[in-house]
Amino acid sequence: MIKRIAHIAIVVDDIDAALCFWRDGLGLDLTHVEDVPDQQAAVAFLPTGESEVELVKPTNELSGIARFLMKRGPGMHHICFEVDDVEACLDRLRAKGIRLINETPTIGTGGKKIAFIHPEGTHGVLVELYELTPEEQLLRHERQLGLADRVLHEGQVMTAAVMGFLQALVGNGDRAN
Amino acid sequence: MIKRIAHIAIVVDDIDAALCFWRDGLGLDLTHVEDVPDQQAAVAFLPTGESEVELVKPTNELSGIARFLMKRGPGMHHICFEVDDVEACLDRLRAKGIRLINETPTIGTGGKKIAFIHPEGTHGVLVELYELTPEEQLLRHERQLGLADRVLHEGQVMTAAVMGFLQALVGNGDRAN
Fold it and tell me: Does the beta carbon of A25 lie under 8 angstroms from any beta carbon of chain B?
């Protein structure tokens, strides 16, 4: 039912400063920084193994993440698990009387289903459940194709530039001889 | 350099109560609960994907984990990454002026090398680095062999019991006829 730790979210007050440790010091790769209006936050994504570290900076002073930052300072905010079936998981938790934040899943970017469990029910940890949907898989595939296209295009542009440079060199060489 | 999230440690005041959520509600498997004198704690291990959730209960009121629990209540305590080379990682962090807790790795159960980075250096998160050593790989292999032996032995005992039961049934059948 639980497949993996999808991500660990860490609240920070300055993404660039935090990257000095997480990317430059620890050596994680940064894929991108994204504005996530749903969460009223900017998020830096740093994959590691089958999981991700996410650095989350509030972009609005009234959000839950902003209040967490003001109250507790920077630190671990929540842990997200990928599950096969969010609804089934919520049903099971509800049957056990565990306090939920979302009684039904909300729909995030790319159609993914997410739901939060209240720290009261988990012994102090805000837990997110996340179900990858076919739409999101398609979106990821399209993103990869887009990236591949850009790399290919930039590669071709680069090759043309290098060829031009080499031809110029050869031309200069011919003139020098 | 960083291979994966090895574990997320969650401090709890009652392992059995916490298992009602993490094992019974969420559905993670519990492999075992172990007394870890180095950490002055009892630890429940719940693997998920390539990582583990560890529920940590202090067994001593004076330990760092006990103080964390008293001050902040139950919750996420630290995140541990498996790395190729702990010393190289510490060298790089030291060169960047990042505050460490362990200047050199300590040797844990099975010879594994571990070192903690101070939350001041990571933007609020206690981070553990962990290097799997050949000794630990051997120890894990031996544990698996031991487990396989027990399963095999119990299987044989069970088979013998079932065979005895079936023979008794056939005997009764013979007598009934």
Answer: yes
Q: What is the pTM of this model?
A: 0.78
Q: Which domain holds residue A61?
A: 2-133
Reported as a single tens digit per residue, the pLDDT across A35-69 is 988 889 999 999 999 999 999 999 999 999 999 99
Both B44 and B117 in one domain: the answer is yes
Angle at B156 between CA B150 and CA B158, to 5 degrees: 100
* Residues B65 and B141 grouped into a single domain: no
Q: How far apart are CA B165 and CA B171, in angstroms?
A: 10
What total of structural domains would you count in chain A? 2
Same domain? B119 vs B161: no
For tokens 């009602």, the residue is B20
Name residue B81's beta-bridge partners.
Answer: B5, B129
* pLDDT tens, position by position, A124-156: 999 999 998 777 767 667 766 776 676 666 666
Domain identity same for A94 and A172: no
Measure in Å the smallest separation between the Cα of A127 and chain B Cα atoms.
Answer: 10
* Domain identity same for A109 and A148: no
With CA atoms as reference, report the closest residue to A4 among B52, B39, B62, B29. Answer: B52
- Answer yes or no: do A69 and A151 share one domain: no
Phi, psi of B121 (to 5 degrees): -85, -15
The b-or-e profile of A80-95 (16+ CB within 10 A means b, else e) is bbbbeebeebbebbee
What span, in angstroms and rounded, lies between the C-alpha atoms of B12 and B54? 10
Cβ of A123 and B25 within 8 Å? no
In this structure, which amino acid lies at residue B42?
A
The ipTM assigned to this model is 0.78
- Cβ pairs bridging A and B (under 8 Å): 122
For the record, the structure tokens of A27 come out as 């050596």
Quickly tell me which residue has 């969460």 as its tokens: A39
